[in-house]
Structures are given as structure tokens and as C-alpha cells.
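Translate structure to sequence.
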């Protein structure tokens, strides 16, 4: 790269900073600031809850809502993705660190921050390897199923808080079992407060959609709790929360201590890439936003790096929190930046009132967000149009609910990849025939079907690779009946031939030649021609049997067969 190109590249990189915030307009700034305040109101107590899953001190939850949000806003491309504490990565962290240190201790926190450092490094490596394309392998159907599963999982997980029932199980199904068993011991004041919050938010959304319903519910709940001492009446509240901005710094453990953390960080990285890509893709498609998944990897890496510097644990792109900011009206990362500003103010001046916030209020707000993630209308549409894809979506949702978010994402990726492989393994193929309008149709590959007497133009609708090459071979051999003198492959859709498929093509050519049947290729594009040259197929078939147009192949067939006394009309 010359100096001018390098300079242009650097200027382009600098222009991409905070691209998810621009353009800045006063109406947009006010709208996103209001959404950020609402996100902070809901996310602050939720982030505190995530620390209980991760096993870190409560204050670290607030730290995940500070610098990581600003870092992703600066380097990421998604205008909607909220990168902060998340239940999935918190659970992975807790499971990986159990046995290495006691939860909540300084040693445990040091290990958690080291996992965040390693995660940031792995995400940067993923960017260098351009693994942002992972999002392309998540189809819309499995994404709908994934988010539906997340909605059910999150909804079930907060029902215990809303009913005042103790739920300690890790898996969603067991949580539901514990919840049902605990119904006789429902705490009525907690249930009544949860129901009131739901009614207020739903009513405001219905009759005053621009009003910040969640924020109003949180502020009123804190005021009422402080006035009438809800905690004394058996309604659990958050309790004391220490304040102050984080001290930036990092103490790295030795290699012996670090080595067991590599697997934990790798698991977090896979979870972060898949979940963040899935979530960012959903909202980008919904709002017609152009997304750069590789830039998002840089943003995710930067967010985890500053999380480590501020003494927090790994952060992730969260579906529920992204849904929160989107439903609150946020349309750029300025909403997340304003959330960080609110959190900074809370850390400095307002941690004391948080102790009065009832946990059931948080549960009710998150429950409504979970309900919005369950897209039954789209699932019904998929069921009517494509039952097979509907089954995959339902299976993905079920795995998320029964097994976990990370397993659901892995299944979503595998299911999407299998659909791609299935389409390539069973491509549209057939014999090209001219209809009455003198345009091409594709007839089924049935022995005896010919394009014209003596000629079969066989179309194969996918790249040739090891899995579908045998089908290609069998169909051609079946079509090459005793009346056939030429088999010309319409290669318009064949963009690639791999090593194994090339060997199959050579074998088919030799078998046809032994039966005095010519094998040719038509509509060969340059990509396929390069593969044919590399695998020596051009030599085997002959350059004179490779044509750019179907018409050229038919003309050559007519010319050669005419010498045998046959007249073939073009």
C-alpha cells in the first residue's frame, strides 16, 4: 500500500469513529437522550442483578454501563446494539471461575477482569480474521426463534421476583417447576406491586406512547418504597449500593493463573460474537441500517478492554437491553452514551436512593421487554409459508428455553448452515427445453428427456462440490440414453468445482466417451473456468467443448451431427 493509500485508509478509519452516533441533530439528540435515560433507569438495577450471576461485587454491574457503552459507540457500527453486562456471559464466567477463587473476593475480581482482557484479545483476533461474516449464517427464521426463546427464558426468570417466590434453579424449566411449587407461598404485596407496575407501563404505552413508562414506574416505586418502607413489609429491595467512579488500572496474574482462564474467555468470545451478531442483525434489518459486522468486533473488543480496565467483567451485546433502548425510541448509539452519562451521575451522587428500589419492579419491566421479544405473528407467518423453516425456528426457541442461550445460538448457526448445505445438496436441476414461445424451460431429469433429438442440455443449479457431485454424475448418466449423442452441461449456476467434484466430472466424461457420447460445458464463467483449468478439466473435456453460450453448443452439435445425415434445426 503506497503512502497516499495509507493516508486515505487512516482518514477513513478516523471518520468511522462514532459513526453510529452521526449525524447529530437537535431533535435526534433529545430523542436519544430520553431513550438513554429510560435505558439507565431499567438497566442500572438489572446490571446489579447480573453481578449476582457473575459472582462479582454489586458495583461492577454499574461499571459495565459506563465505559463499555462509550467504547462501543466509538468503534462499533450498530446504531442499536447495547453492549453491557449480560446473563449469558455472566453465567459462563461464574461457571468457569468456580473453584479458582471465592466469589466476590479481590482474587475473584482479578480473575474476572483477566477474562475480560483475554476476551478483548480474542475479539480483536476475530476482527483480524474477518469473522464478522458469522452473522450472514443466521437466517431470519432462526433469529426469530432465537429471540422468542430468549423472551420466554427471560420472562420465566423474572416471574419469581414478580411473585415474591424464591427461585434458585439455573435452567429455565427447573425455574418454572420451582415457581409452580412455590405458588402457595406467593407474597401478595409483591404480586400487587408487580401488577400495578405492569398496568401503569402498559396503560402509558397505550394512551401516552411518548411518556417514559419504565422511568416513571422506577421513580414512583423508589419514592413509595422510601416513604412506606417496603422492605419492612417483606418486599425485597436492592439494598445499599456503594458509589464513586471506577479507578482505572489492571493487575495481570502470572501465566499459571492465566492459563485456566483461556477456555473461559474463548467461550465468552464465541457467545459474544454469535449473540451480538444475531441481535445487531435483527435491528439493522428492521430499521434498514447498513451494518459492518467487522467494525462491531472492534467495538466489542474495545468495550471488553475498558471493562477490564474499570474492574468489571466481560460485556456482551444484549438482546433484551437492545430491545429496551429501541422500544424507548433510541435510534443511535447516542442513547447508550447518554445512559453512560446518567450512570456516571448515579455513581457520583445517586447510589443511595437505589437501595429502595423493589426488585419486583425491575422484574415487571424486564417481563414486558421479554414479551415484546416473543414474535408470535412472525412465527405464524413462517408456519404458513414454510413449515420446514417454522420447525427450525421452534426448535431453536425450545433449545434456548430448555438448555440455554449459548446452546440456542450454536443451534441457530448450525441450522442456518444446514439449510445452505441442503439447498446446495439438492439444487434445482433438469433438462433445458424450448417452449412454444422459444424461451427456455427446465424439465425434470427423467431418462428419455432431451432438449432436441440427440442433444441433452443439463442444468445443475449449484456449485459442484464433494457432497452433490455424485448426484450430478448419476443424473447425467441416466439422461445419456442410447439415443443421446451429446450431453452439454448448462454451467451458468456452477460457480465453483472442488477437488473431489472435479474427479467425479472426469469419471463421468470417461464413461460417456466410452459410450461415444460427447460431454460439453456451456455458459462457463471465468470463476468456473479457473477451477476447470486448475483441476485439468479443460484438458480432459477439451477447450473446443467449452462454450460461452448455449447457442454455441447447439450450433456445434448441429454442425457435427449434420455430417451423419441428420438435420437439426436451431
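Result:
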Amino acid at each position: 500500500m503506497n503512502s497516499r493509500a495509507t493516508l486515505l485508509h487512516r482518514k477513513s478509519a478516523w471518520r468511522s469513529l462514532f459513526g453510529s452516533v452521526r449525524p447529530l441533530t437537535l431533535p435526534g439528540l433529545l430523542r436519544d437522550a430520553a431513550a438513554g435515560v429510560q435505558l439507565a433507569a431499567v438497566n442500572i438495577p438489572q446490571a446489579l442483578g447480573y453481578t449476582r450471576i457473575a459472582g462479582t461485587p454489586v458495583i461492577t454491574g454499574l461499571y459495565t454501563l459506563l465505559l463499555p457503552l462509550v467504547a462501543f459507540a466509538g468503534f462499533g457500527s450498530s446504531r442499536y446494539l447495547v453492549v453491557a453486562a449480560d446473563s449469558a456471559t455472566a453465567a459462563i464466567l461464574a461457571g468457569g471461575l468456580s473453584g479458582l477463587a471465592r466469589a466476590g473476593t479481590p482474587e475473584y475480581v482479578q480473575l474476572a477482569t483477566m477474562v475480560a482482557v483475554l476476551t478483548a484479545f480474542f475479539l480483536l483476533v476475530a476482527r483480524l480474521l474477518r469473522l464478522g461474516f458469522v452473522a450472514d449464517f443466521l437466517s431470519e427464521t432462526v433469529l426469530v426463534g432465537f429471540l422468542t426463546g430468549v423472551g420466554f427464558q427471560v420472562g420465566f426468570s423474572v416471574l419469581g421476583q414478580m411473585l415474591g417466590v424464591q427461585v434458585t434453579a439455573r435452567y429455565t424449566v427447573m425455574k418454572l417447576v420451582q415457581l409452580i411449587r412455590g405458588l402457595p407461598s406467593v407474597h401478595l404485596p409483591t404480586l400487587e406491586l408487580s401488577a400495578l407496575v405492569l398496568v401503569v407501563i402498559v396503560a402509558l404505552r397505550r394512551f401516552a406512547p411518548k411518556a417514559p413508562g419504565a422511568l416513571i414506574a422506577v421513580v414512583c416505586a423508589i419514592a413509595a418504597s422510601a416513604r412506606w418502607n417496603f422492605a419492612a413489609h417483606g418486599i425485597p429491595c436492592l439494598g445499599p449500593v456503594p458509589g464513586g467512579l471506577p479507578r482505572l488500572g489492571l493487575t495481570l496474574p502470572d501465566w499459571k493463573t492465566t492459563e485456566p482462564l483461556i477456555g473461559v474467555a474463548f467461550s465468552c468470545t464465541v457467545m459474544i460474537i454469535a449473540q451480538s451478531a444475531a441481535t445487531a442483525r435483527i435491528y439493522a434489518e428492521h430499521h434498514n441500517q447498513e451494518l459492518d459486522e467487522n467494525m462491531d468486533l472492534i467495538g466489542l473488543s474495545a468495550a471488553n478492554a475498558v471493562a477490564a480496565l474499570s474492574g468489571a467483567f466481560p460485556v456482551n451485546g444484549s438482546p433484551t437491553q437492545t430491545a429496551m433502548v429501541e422500544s424507548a425510541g433510541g435510534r443511535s448509539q447516542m442513547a447508550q452514551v447518554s445512559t453512560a452519562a446518567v450512570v456516571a451521575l448515579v455513581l457520583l451522587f445517586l447510589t443511595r436512593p437505589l437501595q429502595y428500589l423493589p426488585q419486583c419492579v425491575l422484574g415487571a419491566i424486564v417481563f414486558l421487554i421479554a414479551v415484546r421479544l416473543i414474535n408470535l405473528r412472525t412465527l405464524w407467518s413462517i408456519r404458513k409459508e414454510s413449515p420446514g423453516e417454522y420447525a427450525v425456528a421452534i426448535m431453536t426457541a425450545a433449545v434456548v428455553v430448555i438448555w440455554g442461550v449459548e446452546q440456542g445460538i450454536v443451534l441457530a448457526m448450525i441450522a442456518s448452515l444446514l439449510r445452505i448445505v441442503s439447498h446446495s445438496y439438492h439444487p434445482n436441476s433438469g433438462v433445458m427445453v424450448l417452449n412454444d414461445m422459444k424461451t427456455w424451460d427446465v424439465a425434470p431429469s427423467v431418462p428419455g428427456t432431451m432438449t432436441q433429438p440427440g442433444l441433452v442440455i443439463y442444468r445443475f443449479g449449484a456449485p459442484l462440490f464433494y457432497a452433490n457431485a455424485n448426484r450430478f454424475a448419476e443424473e447425467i448418466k441416466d439422461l445419456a440414453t442410447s439415443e443421446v449423442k451429446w450431453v452439454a452441461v448448462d454451467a451458468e449456476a456452477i460457480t465453483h468445482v472442488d477437488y473431489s467434484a472435479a474427479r467425479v466430472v472426469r469419471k463421468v466424461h470417461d464413461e460417456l466417451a466410452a459410450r461415444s457420447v460427447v460431454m460439453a460445458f456451456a455458459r462457463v464463467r471465468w470463476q468456473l473456468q479457473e477451477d476447470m483449468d486448475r483441476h485439468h478439466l479443460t484438458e480432459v473435456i477439451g477447450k473446443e467443448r467449452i462454450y460461452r453460450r448455449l447457442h454455441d453448443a447447439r450450433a456445434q452439435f448441429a454442425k457435427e451431427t449434420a455430417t451423419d445425415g441428420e438435420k437439426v434445426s436451431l
